[in-house]
Design goal:
This protein is α/β, with parallel strands linked by helices and 361 residues long. The chain is built from eleven helices and 18 strands.
């Protein structure tokens, strides 16, 4: 196959998509061409698109000023190599474009991984530039291929969120509200908090009426309430809001009711991508966007190189093992099918129990 196919998204109108075909590049010296074999599509990828300019996600696989390619987590195979250290046939796990192929420039090559040293990616967070050479995967990880794509990136965020809370003594909170509680990052966080050996937090899930049954059935939340029930929450309790929805209305409703009881207001995702963002004043803690690579970088300094990634991997595997039974994984291939799946996810029409695995080719 000598064609590269990309699913591109208009950066200022996430509903607008196009399928673009072009000639497959020939790798320059030091480069490899990777066929993207399969990847997961989750609400996390919608967050990448929503924050593409703010955080820089459009910069990983740039197209032009108007269009972008949404990053995804998946597996790929080197199909052409001009880099002796990474031969053809090498299988990789990492951050790929929603496309059939990608060109990488391996650097810092070790037996287990390398970093993409492409010029445009050097200013971007190193967490996303690292590719695992899967030949050395332990059997328990190798057996969780779909889960690794669908859940590990989300649960790694869940892990670093739980660590962020612990690292800051929960900001003095005795209760945590988790917005968009049916999302995988949310219930990963709930899992880690609920099973913490020295647990002190009450865990409350905020969700839409249609997801109450699923979220309650997880058995991870002490309570599950809908967004219109925020006003019934008890006051006078120091509360951390960890919001995956990104909805300004949700953040404002919590602040209006709880006021100075809100000791942390952390925006993690944007599952309600089309909702207005919060821009007003607050009585409680000011809403801030949680940038996972910053806490990863802090723990790299605190614990030494590689330790936080290993702990995140181990935690992700534990949570994913428990979550496997909750997911119905569906595999789909073809550029049009990928585009359609993206639109379904964007518009909130993908049920929370469905795990979407895709391939463009």
């Amino acid at each position: 196959m000598n064609v590269i196919t990309q699913i591109q998204v208009r950066r200022n109108d996430l509903q607008a998509t196009r399928i673009v075909n072009g000639p497959l590049p020939v790798p320059a010296v030091g480069e490899v061409v990777v066929a993207v074999d399969r990847f997961a599509l989750t609400a996390n990828n919608i967050t990448y698109a929503v924050t593409g300019d703010f955080i820089g996600y459009w910069g990983f696989f740039p197209v032009d000023a108007d269009w972008g390619v949404v990053p995804v987590w998946g597996y790929g195979t080197v199909v052409a190599s001009n880099c002796p250290e990474v031969p053809e046939g090498e299988r990789l796990y990492g951050f790929f474009p929603m496309a059939s192929h990608v060109v990488l420039q391996p650097g810092k090559v070790s037996a287990g991984a390398f970093t993409d040293f492409a010029e445009h990616r050097r200013p971007l967070p190193g967490l996303y530039n690292r590719y695992v050479r899967t030949a050395g995967d332990p059997p328990e990880i190798a057996a969780m291929g779909d889960e690794r794509c669908l859940l590990f990136p989300l649960f790694a965020t869940s892990y670093i969120l739980s660590d962020y809370l612990e690292d800051n003594a929960n900001f003095g909170a005795t209760r945590v509200l988790i917005g968009s509680a049916s999302s995988k990052t949310a219930f990963g966080l709930a899992h880690l908090l609920a099973k913490a050996p020295d647990r002190t937090l009450e865990i409350i899930g905020l969700t839409s009426p249609g997801n109450v049954a699923f979220t309650t059935g997880l058995g991870l939340y002490d309570r599950v309430i809908t967004y219109d029930q925020i006003g019934a929450l008890e006051t006078g309790i120091p509360t951390a809001l960890v919001d995956m929805s990104g909805s300004g209305a949700v953040i404002q409703a919590v602040d209006d009711h709880l006021g100075k009881d809100v000791v942390l207001s952390s925006i993690v995702g944007a599952t309600h991508w089309d909702a207005k963002r919060h821009k007003g004043e607050t009585q409680g803690a000011r809403p801030t966007f949680f940038f996972a690579p910053a806490q990863f970088a802090k723990r790299e300094q605190d614990w030494g190189p590689g330790v936080v990634m290993q702990r995140a991997l181990e935690a992700s595997a534990r949570v994913a093992a428990d979550a496997r039974s909750l997911l119905e994984v569906r595999h789909t291939c073809g550029a049009e099918a990928v585009r359609d799946a993206y639109v379904e996810m964007l518009n909130g029409r993908t049920p929370p129990h469905i795990g979407v695995m895709l391939s463009v080719a």
